[in-house]
Design brief:
Layout: H1 7-25, H2 31-50, H3 54-59, H4 64-72
């Protein structure tokens, strides 16, 4: 399992996960849609924490290297 999720990508994932959880907790998303939102937010949090996204591997994407190259240009 090679890390393929960069820092910017992690922050976006965390933000979306927080938004989905708040929508579910506030009652905007209820029922099946609320459960789907919670599952999606959990998947985003986990993939962000372990820096690995299986879908990125399937599509050949890697956002981690892009963040590293930005830091080298300073």
């Amino acid at each position: 399992m090679k890390a393929n999720v960069g820092m910017t990508d992690k922050l976006i994932r965390y933000g979306i996960a927080a938004a989905l959880v708040s929508l579910q907790l506030s009652g905007v998303l209820t029922g099946t849609l609320g459960i789907i939102a919670l599952v999606a937010s959990a998947m985003m949090l986990i993939s962000g924490m372990i820096s690995f996204c299986p879908l990125y591997t399937a599509f050949g994407w890697n956002t981690r290297n892009q963040d590293a190259s930005k830091n080298l240009k300073h």
